Amino acid sequence: MYFEVLGELLVRTETGDPITVPDTKVRTLLLNLLVNLGRPVSADRLIDALWGDHPPRNARGTLQARISQLRTALARAEPGARALVAHGPAGYTLQVSPEVVDSNKFELLVTNAQATRDLSERIACLTEALELWRGPAYADVADEEFARAARNRLEEQRLAAWEERAEARLELGEHAELVGELAELTARHPLRERLRSTQLKALYRSGQQEAALTAYAELREALAEQLGADPGRELAALHQAILRHDPVLSGRPKTNLPTPLNELIGREKSLAQGNELLCAARLVTLVGPGGVGKTRLALEIGRDQSTEVRLVELAVVRAPDVLDAIAATVGLRDDESGELADRLAESLAARPVLLVLDNCEHVVERVADLVRRLLAAAAGLRVLATSREPLGLAGEHLLEVEPLEPPEAARLFLERAAAATPGFANDPEAVAAICRRLDGIPLALELAATRVRALGVQELAARLDDRFRLLAGGRGVPERQRTLRATIDWSWDLLAEQERVMLRRLAVYADGFTLDAAGEVSDLPADELLGKLVDRSLVVATAGRYRLLESVAAYSLERLAEAGEETRLRRRHAAYYVALAERAEPRLRGREQQVWLGRLDQESANLRTALDHAARTEATELALRLVNACSWYWYLRGRLGEARRSLTTALGLPNPSPMLQAEATAWSAGMAATAADSANLTDASERALALYRDVDDPRGQARAEWFLTATQWAYGDPGLLLQRVDRAIESMTEHGDRWGLAAALSTRAQLALTHADLDAMQQDGLRSLGIFDELGDGWGRQQANYSLIVAAEITGDYETATRRLTESARLAEDLGMWTEVSLRTAGLGRMALLAGDYTRADELHEKARRLAIEQSNKSAEEYAEVGLGLSARRQGDLDKAERHFTNWLGWLQQVGGTAGTAFILAQLGFIAEQRGEYERALELQQQGYATAKSFGDERAIALALEGLAGAKAGAGLSHEAVVLLAEAEALRRAVGAPLPPGERFDVDRITFRASRRPWPGCP
C-alpha cells in the first residue's frame, strides 16, 4: 500500500490501483496519522483536529467510528490492513514503513542527490524527486494547524531542490534552457537570493547582461520595500562581477589541475580523509616533509570535487607576489581600478570554488594573511593548502601526509622501476631495504627507481649510504625536486639560524630522542625549537618522542660535520646516555622496573651509538660505565649476544679502572654461561671474582658471586656454586642489600634441586618471594616462583605448579622478558605432558623453543627441546625423540651441565631399551648413573637406576631389574620425592616387563 501527500491525498495498492477513502473526516484522520507517521496521536488531538471547537456530543465514540471506517477502507484493498491503524496507551498509530509515503521518498532522493559529486546523477535524482509532486503538500488540509509545519518544511525542500537542480544544470552549461524556467520560479519567489543568483548567471552566460542587471535591480528594490534590507554579500559580489565582465562567469572549464601521468599509490586512506575534511571545513592544509607526496595528494583530492577548482603554484613565487599569482590563476587582471585583494574576494564570492595553494612554506605568513581575508569575504570559498608547516589560522584542519607504509612503498618503487627498466628483475629483500632506508618517501623512491636500469636493485641498495649523489637527476619535475639533496635544501634554506643549529645537532641521535635529551645534548632551548622543526615537517613527533627521517638525518650529519661540531656533540650524546643508563639501573630492581625497561627499550639504539663512540675514541671509563649500567637490562631482556659483544668491546679498551673492570668482567663471565660454545665457566668466574680482591666493593662482589652462580646453577660444580651463593647471602644480609638477598635466596633454592631438598627449596623460595613482593620486583617474583614450581611438580601437585607457572609467565610477559616467558611456557608444556595432553604439550614446547631462539638463550632452548623429546618418546616416536635429545648432549657436556647430561643419557637409554637394543641401553644408563653419582643428586641417581632396571629387564634379568627398581624407589622416598602418578610412565612399563607380563600402556 502506498500513500501520496504531495498534492491531494491518494492511496494506492501495490499494483497501483486507487483506494477510496470515503468522507472528509476519515481522510483528515488519515492525513493526521501520516503527518505523525511512526508516532502515536492521542484521541484528544485527533478530536481537536477533526472538529476543533465544536466536537460531537460523544466525541470519543464518533472518533472510534471514523477509525473503524478508515480500517474498513484499507482492508477492502488489502486483507489484514485493518491492523495498520493500531491503538495503544498513547493513542493511534499508522504502522507503515516510511518508504511507502511519497514525501519520505522525496526527501531520500534529495539526500542522495546531495551526496553525489556526479552532476548528471545529481540532476537525475532531483528530477525524480520533483516529479513526485502533484500539487501543494497536504493539499486537502492546507488550512489545518496539525499539517502546517510538515507542509512548510516540504515546500521549502521542494524549492531548494529546484535551486540545486538549476545550479547543477548551470554547471553543465544548460544556461539557455534555464532562463525561462528560472523566470517563472523567481516570479513566484521574488525574494530568494539563491534562486536569483542562479538566474543572473544563466542570463549572463546566455548573453543577456542587461537582463541580468535588471533582475538584480528588481531584487534590490523588492528587498528594500518589503524587508528594508539590501542583497547579501555574495549576490552583491556577483553583481560587481557582471558589471566588469569577470572571466569566472563565462562558464570556462572548472579546473586547471594537470592530468596525472601515473596512478596515485598507497594513499587511499589519506584521500578519503582529505575529502571528508573538505566537506566539513573550509581550510585544510596537507603538511609533511619534502617529497612525501603532498602535492600529488592535493591534486587527487581536487579532482574529486564537483565545484570549480583552481591550482595556484607558489613554489617559485615570492611573498609580495602571492596575491598576483592567485588573482592571475582565477582570471583577474591587475590593470583595473580598486584594490586587487578586494576584487579577488568579490570574484571568489560569486561562486563556490576550491583554491589549491601548493607549496606555501616559504611564503606562509603572506599566504595565511591572504587566506584569512578571502575566507571571511567569500562564504563559498574553500582552500586546500600544501605546506611543510601549518598556516596557523583559526579553523584550519591539518592532514598529516606521512611516508608510505612498507607494502605501499614497495608497490610504488616496483611500478616506477618496472616502467623505467624493461625486463626489471625484482629482489624483494633488496627492495624492502631500499624502501626502509628511504623512509617510504615517494620522491626518494621515484628517484631511486630511475637508477635501477643502470645499477639493479641490489647494487642500488648497497649504495644508499651515498644517497645524495646517487639520487640526483630527474626531468619534468620542479628544480627543488630533481635531487634528494635539493628537496631538503629547500627546507633548510627556510630555517632561521638557530633552527639550523638544532637540526644539525639532532643528527647524533639514533632511532629517536626525548625532549630532555634534545635540550641536554644540543645545549639549545629544545622545547621552542623542536616545535618549530616539527611544524616544518623536518622532525617527526610520535608518542612523546622525536625522530629524523633517515635522509634528513644524513643531510643534517653532513651539516654538523661542516660546522666542525660532530666530535663535541657525539661526546655530549655519549655522556647523556651513560648517565641515563646509570639512572635507570637501580630502577630495574623494584616497582619501576616495567617503566624503565620500556624507557631503555626506546633508547637501545642511542645506547649502542654511545658505546660505539666511546670505543672509537678509547673513552674506556665511559664505555665500562655504560656496559655495567646496561648489563642487567640486557639480561632481563634476553639480549645476551649484545651483552657479550658489548662487554668484550669495553673490556678490550686500554687502562680500565680496577673497580669498573671487576664489575664488567663478572658480567661478562655470567653472560658467557648462556652462550652455545661456553667452556671453562668455573675458571672464567674465578678470574672475575679475583679482580674484586683488589677493590673495596663488598656489595658489588656479593652481587657478582650471586650472578655467576645464577647463570651457572644448572651446569657448574654444585658444591662450589653453593659456597658462592652462601657467601653472597651472608654479605648481602650484613650490608642490608634486600634485593640482592632475595635474588641469592632464589638461586640457592634452585641449587637445592640438585639433591631434591624440598624443604630448602620451599623455604628459600618462599622467603625470596616475600622480599620480592615487598620490593614490587616482577622479575624477582617469577624467579622466586621457579623452585616452588619444581617442588610442586616433584610432589605431584600439578595444580599448584600450573598456577604458579601461569602467574610467572604473565609477569614475565608484562615485563617483556621473553627468555623467562620461554622457560615458563616450556614448564606449562611439562604439565600438559604429565597430564597426557601431548598435542598441547608439543604446542607449548615448540612455542617456548621459538622464543628461546629469538632471544639467543641456549639454556631455555635446551629446556624446551628436551620437552619435545619427552613428548615424542611417550607417543612412541623414538627416532624423533632421539634427535631432540642428541641435539643437546654435546652442549651440556661442554658447559658442564652435569644434571642435564645425566637426564639425557637416561632418556637415550630408555629409547635404546624400547627399541630392543639392550646392550646399548645398558651402556647409556651406566654412563648416566656415573654422571648422576658425580654430583650426588638422589633423584638423578634414582632415574639412572630405573633406566638400568629397564635394560636388565629387557635382557631377561628380571630379578636384577626388580632389585634396581626397589632401590630407586627407596632412594626417592628417602629424599621425600616419590614418583607422582604422572611420572611413572617408565617405572610402570619396566615393572610389567620385569614381571614377564605385557604392559598395556606400551606404545
UniProtKB/TrEMBL annotation:
BP GO terms, sorted: phosphorelay signal transduction system; regulation of DNA-templated transcription
The organism's taxonomic lineage, starting at the top: Bacteria, Bacillati, Actinomycetota, Actinomycetes, Propionibacteriales
Keywords: DNA-binding
Keyword field contains DNA-binding: yes
Protein name: Tetratricopeptide repeat protein
SUPFAM superfamilies xrefs: C-terminal effector domain of the bipartite response regulators, P-loop containing nucleoside triphosphate hydrolases, TPR-like
Organism this protein belongs to: Kribbella qitaiheensis
Any one GO molecular function term: DNA binding
DNA-binding region as annotated in the record: 1-96
Domain OmpR/PhoB-type residues, every copy: 1-96
Superkingdom classification of source: Bacteria
InterPro entries to which the protein is assigned, alphabetical: AAA_22 (IPR049945), BTAD (IPR005158), OmpR/PhoB-type_DNA-bd (IPR001867), P-loop_NTPase (IPR027417), Sig_transdc_resp-reg_C-effctor (IPR016032), TPR-like_helical_dom_sf (IPR011990), WH-like_DNA-bd_sf (IPR036388)
Family according to the record: Belongs to the AfsR/DnrI/RedD regulatory family.
